[in-house]
Amino acid sequence: MGPATAKKDLFWANLVHISFEMWWDRELPPDAERKYYEAKPYLRVDDALWNDILAKMRAAGMNMLVLDLGNGVQYRSHPEIALKNAWSTGRLREELAKCRELGLEPIPKLNFSACHDFWLHPYDRMLSTPTYYTVCAELIAEVIELFDTPAFFHLGMDEETAGNQRLLRYSVVRQYDLWWHDLNLLIDAAQDGVVAERLGHALHLDDRGAHQRTASAARDGSTRFMRSRIRASGMVMARYRTAAATSGV
Q: How high is the pLDDT of residue 192?
C-alpha cells in the first residue's frame, strides 16, 4: 500500500517515539510502574526494534508513521537540546527515505505541551517568553525542511493541566487565553511551512484545569474563533481517549 496521499485512502498510522523525554523529569523508585518514562541523557532507540516496527507496519498494510522526535535529533538550529547519540539530521533523512520506500508516509511530531516538553530543556522553563517562541518556531521550520514539507505536523499540546503534572518536579500550566495564544503561534509557525497541522488535544472531563481553560475560552470567544480558524487553516483537532477510559469498549 502506498503513502496515504490520495483522497480515497484512509490513514492507517502508528505513533513511534524517537525520544522518550516527555514524561517524568525525575528519577523514580526501582519498582515504579512505567519507570521507562524517566528522562535519560542518552538516546534509547534500538535499531533492530526500529527496523522491525517498520517491517511489521508494512506487513500490516499501514501507510503512515507519526514520528515523535523530541530531543532525539541533533537539530542544526538548536543542537544544545540533543540527547547523547541523538540521530544526526543526515540519519533522520535516511530513515525517512526508508519509510517512504516501505509505503509509510512520515509525519513529524513535536509535543509543545508543558506536560510533555522536558525534551525542550532548558527552554521548557522559559515557557511563553520571547526566547521560547523563537526556539519553537525555529525547530518547527527545521523539521518541516527535514521532512520535505510534510502533509501534517503533530504539535501535541495535550494534558496541560495541574492534575496531569502532579508527579513532576517542575509543573506549569498556561491558563485562559495564554494557552490559545501560544497554540496560535505554533499554528502560524507550522503554516509558514505550508503544512496542515495536527493538534493532539486531549480534554479529560475529570481534569479541573481542562474545564477551567475551556470555560474561560467560551467566555472570551476564543472557542468560536478557534473553530473558524480550524476550518480556514485545515488544522485537525484530534481528541483521544486513554486506555483506562476505553476499557471494555
A: 80
In total, how many domains does the chain have? Answer: 1
- Domain housing 46: 13-238
pLDDT surpassing 80 at residue 101: yes
> 178 pLDDT exceeds 70?
yes
Residue 246 lies in a domain: no
Question: Could you give the C-alpha distances from 101 to 24, 94, 104, in angstroms and in order?
Answer: 35, 11, 7
In the sheet that 152-154 helps form, which strands lie side by side, from edge to edge?
13-17, 64-68, 105-109, 152-154, 196-200, 236-238
pLDDT at 213 over 80: no
CB 111 within 8 A of CB 67: no
Is this prediction's pTM over 0.90? no
Amino acid at 185: L
State how far the Cα of 221 lies from the Cα of 157, in Å rounded to an integer. 20
